[in-house]
Amino acid sequence: MGAYILRRLLLMIPTIFGIMAISFLVIQFAPGGPVEQVIARLSGQGGDMISGGGSDAGNQSGSAVDGSQYRGAQGLDPNFIAQLEQQFGFDKPWYERFFGMLWDYLRFDFGESFFRDIAVLDLILEKMPVSVSLGLWITLISYSISIPLGIRKAVQDGSSFDVWTSGIVIVGYAIPGFLFAIMLMVLFAGGSFFDWFPLRGLTSENFDQLSWPMKIVDYFWHLALPLTAMVLSAFATTTLLTKNSFLDEIRKQYVVTARAKGLSERRVLYGHVFRNAMLIVIAGFPGAFISAFFTGSLLIENIFSLDGLGLLGYRSVIDRDYPVVFATLFIFSLFGLLVGLLSDLIYTWIDPRIDFESRDV
């Protein structure tokens, strides 16, 4: 297992390099870079001004700077434009910027945001509590619903309970989470009906003045609607996966043998079937958490004004805040690869018969 882990860790290096290289190259051709963002703001056009001839990142080092290179720069001092390029690092060749960025990232030095006057790592840590809250609770709640429901559906396969719950699960999965979030907001957050839940933030303004039991109540009061909107479709896949895994195991010969020995149905189900059937479900837990943590909450964060990592990444792309964009991409990619390795290790922990050591990576 040690050799397998080492191979996987070594393979992460070219994988992350490829992800960062492709993303960096794409950025070279994306219009409306940081220099143009500043020019647009100076000209009173906000951040919507897009270059007609490529991004700032694509400019060649050492080229003559004049206002014609950026839409809206006519009339501005060329020295000012040159200072902007130097400030954002575009006075250097692309390969120097790329490898310099990778060297900094290997030392976990992510620099500072272009437009927020704060270190990128501090900015990510500042937004992390919202994403951790959403990712952790949505994963725990969805698994708490999915596993018991999937087991019962497998045991009662073909019954009216199985049919009705399958219909509910499929309908819930088909409804977009953001649409359900808007409906919840209209119904329960001061829309046209009730004003029972807050519309924004993870805590109330007087959170620090509350007693610790009331802090817990206030925390879950703010999370109630976002989690409800996200959980509707989150448990559908896991429920059906659990059901199908149990059905596959129940039909195997060792289950027939266990029943023939006179073991109770409960003992057969939870003493023999459960461990084998839950292998793929439990091993997928880290991946499910990371998915909900990093990618599953962008629209929900927007709707309920929760300032988390999803919203941070989206705004950074819109603002062309490249340090934040690349840093979050690097961190998300690294976490994703590590979680993939962790899932494999959980497989071997749950079922020692699985041996990755004898297989190619």
Q: How would you characterize this protein structure?
A:
With 361 residues, this protein is mainly α. It is 68% helix and 0% strand. The chain is built from 15 helices and no strands. Helix 5 crosses helix 8 (212-250) and helix 6 packs across helix 8 (212-250).
Known CATH architecture of the largest domain: Orthogonal Bundle
What is the helical fraction, as a range of percent?
Answer: 55-70%
Radius of gyration, in Å, reads 26 Å
How many helix segments? 15
What's the number of extended β-strand segments? 0
Number of domains: 2
**Briefly, what CATH class of the largest domain?**
Mainly Alpha
| SSE run | HHHHHHHHHHHHHHH
**pLDDT below 50 for ≥5 consecutive residues: which ranges?**
47-68
Helix vs. strand class:
mainly alpha
Distance between the termini: 12 Å
Domain ABC transmembrane type-1: 128-343
Keywords: Cell inner membrane, Cell membrane, Membrane, Transmembrane, Transmembrane helix, Transport
Protein name: Microcin C ABC transporter permease YejB
Main location: membrane
